[in-house]
Amino acid sequence: MEALAGVHEALSEAIGLEATTAERSVLEAVDFVRALRGAKTMFVPEELMVARPVPAGDPVAATSTINVDAFASGQSRKILRDKNRPGMLVRRHLEVC
């Protein structure tokens, strides 16, 4: 299973994804999950502080958020969110979604 996860990670990094419409929610979700690479916790926040590369200089700190309402179905949203932990998402379900 770990080998498959490594292949999936390498593939997601190698593929250059580009939005064909103004809707970018899925691409933002992919970036969000990439930022969670290596996370082992069961729950992750819907908002993360990440280092973003800039053309000239050191990376800058930025907030990365995920809007599961924009890309997940009603049933998926039910398993992504934990009603006992507002603002948190079930990491494994998010990675699969």
Provide structural commentary.
The chain is α+β, with helices and mostly antiparallel strands. It is 42% helix and 19% strand. It has five helices and four strands. The chain has helices at residues 2-14, 25-35, 68-71, 74-80, 91-96; strands at residues 43-45, 47-52, 60-65, 88-90. β2 (47-52) and β3 (60-65) form a beta hairpin. The chain is globular. The model has no long low-confidence stretch (mean pLDDT 75).
State the main characteristics.
alpha+beta, 97 residues, two-stranded antiparallel ribbon, 5 helices
Beta strands, count? 4
Give the distance, in angstroms, between the N- and C-terminal Cα atoms: 17 Å
Enumerate the spans where pLDDT stays under 50 for 5 or more consecutive residues.
none
**Continuous helix count:** 5
Question: What is the approximate shape?
Answer: globular
The major sheet is characterized as: 2 strands, antiparallel
What's the helix-strand series? Answer: HHEEEHHEH
Q: Look at the structure and give the mean pLDDT.
A: 75
Biggest sheet, spatial arrangement of strands: 1-4
The helix/strand class is alpha+beta
Question: For the CA atoms, what is the radius of gyration?
Answer: 14 Å
Strand content: 15-25%
Helicity range:
40-55%
Task: Summarize the helices and strands and which ones pair or pack.
Layout lengths: L1 H13 L10 H11 L7 E3 L1 E6 L7 E6 L2 H4 L2 H7 L7 E3 H6 L1
Antiparallel strand pairs: 1-4, 2-3
